[in-house]
Amino acid sequence: MSDNTQLGYHMDIELTSQPEMWERAIAQAKAENLLPADGARVAVVGCGTSWFMAQSYATAREAAGKGITDAFAASEAFIASRDYDVLVAITRSGTTSEVLALLAELDGSIPTVAVIGDTSSPIVSKVDQVVELPYADEESVVQTRFATTALAYLLTSVGVDLTDAVADARTAVTAQTPAELIDAEQFTFLGRGWTVGLAHEAALKMREAVQGWTESYPAMDYRHGPISIAAPNRVTWMLGEEPEGLAGDMVRTGALYINNQVHPLAELTRIHRVTLDRARARGMNPDQPRNLTRSVILSDEA
C-alpha cells in the first residue's frame, strides 16, 4: 500500500471531486425521468450514510410540494403495511443485506427505484428503475462523493437549484483546517429541515474516520438538553439557517460555534475536509476505518 493511501489518498481525491460530480448528476437528473412522479407517496430507504441522504431527500421532496415522502433505515422500514406508491433505495454498493432483504420482502408489490454507484451490483436486476451514478463510486470505505452526488441528483429532481452549492463547494473542499478544529475534543452538528440529514451524516463521517465523539440533532431540539455538553475545546457546527437566539446561547457555553454563510451541501464537504485532516493528524487511514467494510453484507446465520 502506498504512502498516499495510508494518509487517506482515496478519500482525499473523492471528497475533492465532489463539485464536478454534482455537476454531472445535476445534468443527468434534468435529462432523466426515473424518480417518482409528483404526487406519488414515496418511501426512501438506505443504511448508514444512505439513510441520512434519504432523510434529506424526503424532507426536500415534501417541502417542494411533490408528495408525501418518508425516510427509513432499510432494516426498520414498514413499507408493506403502508400505502406507498414507490420505494426508492439509495445504496452505493447495491449489495447491502438490509436493502436486498427489503426488496425481496416486497416481491414486486410496489414499483421500486435504486440509486446506485456500482452498476454491476445484484440490485440492478431486483428493481424496476435504476439511477446509475458509477462516476461517483468510491474506493474509500468512508463515503463522501457518492452520498452527496446522489443527493444532488435527488434534490435537482424536485426543483432545488444547486448552483450556489457547486460554487461554494469548490472552495470548501480545499479549505485549510485550523488547529482549533484539528485539536477539538468533541463535535456536534445541527440542521433544520432537509439539512438535519446532513448533520447526521457529518457526525457519522467523523465517528467513522476519526473515531471521535460526535453528536447530531435538529437545531431547534439542541437546546432541549444536548447543549449541556457544549464547552471550551468543543465545537457546535450549524448547517443551514440557524434558529433565532442560538448564536447567543452558544457564546455563553464557551464552545466554538460555526455557522458559515455557504450552501449547506457545500458545508458538508468542508466537514469532509476537516474529518480527513483530523484523521491524518491522528495517524488514521479513513480509507480503511476500524471495524468497517465498504458494504455491510450479513451472513445467513446473523
Overview of the structural elements:
The chain folds into 2 domains: 3-162, Glucose-6-phosphate isomerase like protein, domain 1 (Rossmann fold); 165-281, Rossmann fold (3-Layer(aba) Sandwich). The protein is of the alpha/beta class and 302 residues long. It has a 5-stranded parallel beta sheet with strand order 2-1-3-4-5, sandwiched between helices. A 4-stranded parallel beta sheet has the order 7-6-8-9, with helices on both faces. Helix 2 (9-16) runs antiparallel to helix 11 (264-281), helix 4 (49-63) runs parallel beside helix 6 and helix 7 (163-172) packs parallel to helix 11. It is globular. It has helices at residues 3-6, 9-16, 18-31, 49-63, 97-106, 145-157, 163-172, 179-183, 195-210, 246-253, 264-281; strands spanning 42-46, 69-73, 86-91, 112-116, 129-132, 186-191, 213-218, 234-239, 256-258.
The major β-sheet equals:
5 strands, parallel
Distance separating the two termini: 32 Å
Mean pLDDT: 91
CATH topology of the largest domain: Rossmann fold
| Residue runs with pLDDT of under 50 for 5 or more positions | 1-8, 291-298
Question: What's the arrangement of strands in the largest beta sheet?
Answer: 2-1-3-4-5
Number of domains: 2
**Total beta strand runs:** 9
Order of helices and strands: HHHEHEEHEEHHHEHEEHEH
Helix/strand-derived category reads alpha/beta
Instruction: Name the CATH architecture of the largest domain.
Output: 3-Layer(aba) Sandwich
Give the gist of this structure:
This protein has 302 residues and is of the alpha/beta class.
